[in-house]
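The records we work with from here on pair a chain with its fold. These numbers are not coordinates but entries in a learned vocabulary of local backbone shapes. To see the layout at work, look at the sequence and tokens printed below:
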Amino acid sequence: MSIYALMRSPEKLSQLQALYPNVTAIRGSLDDYEVIKKEASKHPVVINTASSDHPRSVEATLEGLKTYSQLHPGDPPLYIHTSGPGFTSDNARGQPVDEKDLKFYTDIGLDLEPCEGFHLDCDKQIVHAGKDENVPIRTVIVFPCWIYGVSDGEPTKVTMPIRIIFPLCKEAGYAGTWSPGASRMRSCHVKDVANALLVIFEAALVGQENNVTPELKFGKEGLYFVGSEDSFFTMYEVTSQLEKVLLARVTKWGILHKKGVLETSDWKPLPDSVIAKFGEFGWAMFGGNQMTEIKRIKQLGWKAEVSESEGMSLLECLEEEVSLLLETEGLV
């Protein structure tokens, strides 16, 4: 099996080739419409883990896959897209919401058409393409919940939520949240997310090779929430644990204080001046309840094995991830 990867940075391109010499790197960015379209037209499988909010690159991918589909009748290409459950956010502005008033979403019978929120500019066009019987494309959208944990890959080991939150806390001088931080959501270790993509990919291959109808669904039904069902967590719990991680390292607390990472150990909501730069995206992601029920992916035999292992929950893994971030930033 030949693997090709779109790479924007020459530095990361060389790192990728050093780690995986059998991977062919394609120089380009998500803004290179024609490059993406051309490459997608040549391959039976495209997996997008680069961005959940770049409609133009998704359009280019789908256009390329349509060409592939037309050139290979009876052998529709596969597109696996990584999105997020941001559309499930109730945007409660970080305020407590009574359990009976929370809206829960399941990925079985889910219809994205009436939904509003982030990522849907990409998601809806993917679903539409997946429903086209004249030029068939087997589309699957994966919606990982809060991704956490240290990965085995290079060069980026720290997950996006921590890369967003930590600079904000550093700017504010304390570990805080959007309003009181009562918003709830599920989480999933990055290794479980990677395994979910692999499970979906393998299920697609099995169905295709054996000429049978796989359990894997495509198009309108090809929507997969991915997350641990152990429990929901709140933003307050995350930032409180972040604060504990920093304070527990007594000798390094002084260093962090001197370097201006944290000015106080008191928890409180982040000031508007700090969170304003993220606008409504920040409120939806960090200030809203995202009540998802993980159903469809389990039908393929997937389990959140790492996330639900002893000592591997989001809160328990924060120390390792934050420590790595501090080292990367040269703060310890």
Remarks:
- Residues 190-209 form the longest helix (20 residues).
- The chain has eleven helices and twelve strands.
- The CA atoms of residues 104 and 322 lie 31 Å apart.
